[in-house]
Write a structure and sequence with these properties.
The chain has 221 residues and is α/β, with parallel strands linked by helices. The protein contains five helices and eleven strands, in the order αβαβββαβαββββββα.
Length: 221
């Protein structure tokens, strides 16, 4: 539903009509431009009940921060462009959260620390977090938040970097690492030079199943 070419006011009106009629919206995609900043929170408010996927991109005022009126129902939230408005803690109700950071981000070590602490110590729907377009320094402080044992990651950056892990962690293959906390909750981490994916155990097992299905399909075709 909606597209990059749909004017923000038209998108808002359409969402309002559908929600007033109590109809279901499975997918919503829109690219918002900064000169419609007064409509941004209204459009996002109307997306709360989208069930399957919400994709939001565009440019936003630097000081704009959004807090949903109630938890989002969508399974997958995809955010790109300006991301300063995004408070990760407000979207742990989504099953999958994908963020493509732009050139400038106001996410700090403190905000990431608060988010990961709450996510990994609570039972929330969020199963997969994918952070993309990150700088090496940002990846470093995220890893430093997640762990407490010494491990050198090789071939990810120009020089090996030493991280200190705060949880039990083991290497599964070149890019995948397993992580177990003291309360036995397991997470799985995939690292690349500019991104990090974090999966719960359930999400990781589903990922492995899909990869196996792809492998079998390639073998039979």
């Amino acid at each position: 539903m909606c597209s990059k070419r749909t004017p923000p006011l038209s998108a808002l009106k359409l969402l309002e009509i559908i929600n007033e009629k109590k109809l279901s919206i499975e997918k919503f995609y829109h690219h918002i431009i900064s000169d419609s900043s007064e409509l941004i929170p209204k459009i996002l408010d109307e997306c709360v009940d989208v069930t399957e996927s919400v994709q939001i991109g565009g440019n936003y005022p630097d000081r704009f921060v959004y807090t949903p009126p109630r938890p989002f129902k969508t399974e997958r939230l995809h955010v790109s462009g300006s991301t300063n408005w995004l408070n990760l803690e407000s979207f742990m109700s989504c099953r999958d959260l994908y963020v493509q950071f732009g050139e400038v981000s106001n996410q700090t070590e403190q905000s990431f620390n608060s988010f990961f602490t709450k996510w990994m110590n609570s039972k929330v729907p969020l199963q997969t977090l994918s952070l993309n377009g990150m700088k090496p320094s940002e990846l470093r402080f995220i890893i430093n938040i997640l762990n407490n044992i010494q491990l050198v990651f090789e071939n990810l950056f120009l020089t090996p970097i030493l991280f200190v892990f705060r949880v039990t962690m083991w290497r599964l293959n070149r890019n995948w690492y397993g992580m177990k906390q003291r309360d036995e909750l397991e997470f799985f981490i995939k690292l690349s030079s500019d991104s990090i994916e974090i999966h719960t155990k359930q999400s990781y097992l589903e990922y492995l199943k899909k990869e196996e299905e792809k492998r079998r399909y390639r073998q039979t075709n």
